[in-house]
Amino acid sequence: MITFEEIKENEDIRTYIRRADESLIALGYTEHSFAHVGRVADVAGYILSTLGYSEHDVELARIAAYLHDIGNLVNRIEHSQSGAIMAFRILDKLGMDAADVATVVTAIGNHDEGTGVAVNPISAALILADKSDVRRSRVRNTDEKTFDIHDRVNYSVKSSSLKINEAHTLIKLKLSVETRYGSIMDYFEIFLQRMIMCRKAAETLGLEFKLIINEQQLM
Fold first, then answer.
1. In the CATH scheme, what architecture does the domain 4-217 have?
2. What is the C-alpha to C-alpha distance for residues 179 and 171, in angstroms, rounded to an integer?
């Protein structure tokens, strides 16, 4: 099996991630480079390992997470589909088993809101890990006066955590938000669809999704 460490160390893949993020810098988007995909890989792995999935499934989730945003190299629009096709070619060329390629490609192709659906546990873990990565350090604009709503919302989040309870019945996204940068209403304006997607992904894993902002449960 192709391992997550092999994917992380592959220089071609690193180039695609780097260049995809360069396109997003030009478009004024938040960070989508190694910090983001690394964190998403860690959280996706945490979700499945905590729920008792096999190490094989955990590896596939980490691989899908690491590759999930490479489609931004082609275009931001429909980047999940273009990224899935890119991942197919990369993984097939590396000799990954066809069943594993299929699982990773499905997860990548279903990770974005609007078109994505948590069709299996790997895709569900990727959705939850990706959509929960909201944090101040993703904002690259250094001029607060020119923040757009995405900058304001991400910059307002002082801390975030995604945790599964001991009974494995709930998954909670807890955010600490500094409202002088972005209101809770701002958060819902751009993230409501993502949070609904997280709720459905949690259901695929047999979990209930809860969103807690500043110690107040909102979903």
1. Orthogonal Bundle (1.10)
2. 24
Q: How far lies 138's CA from each of 19, 80, 151, 170, in Å?
A: 17, 20, 9, 27
* Torsion 184-214-191-29 (CA) sign: positive
What ranges do the domains of the chain cover? 4-217
Structure tokens at 204: 């695929």
CB 58 within 8 A of CB 45: yes
Instruction: State pLDDT tens for residues 75-93.
Output: 999 999 999 999 999 999 9
Cβ-based neighbour number of residue 145 at 10 Å: 5
Distance (Å, rounded) from C-alpha 208 to C-alpha 199?
7
Q: Secondary structure of 102-133 in the HEC alphabet?
A: HHHHHHHHCCCCCCCCCCCHHHHHHHHHHHCC
Q: What pTM, to 2 d.p., does this model score? A: 0.95
pLDDT digits 0-9 by tens, 196-208: 999 999 999 999 9
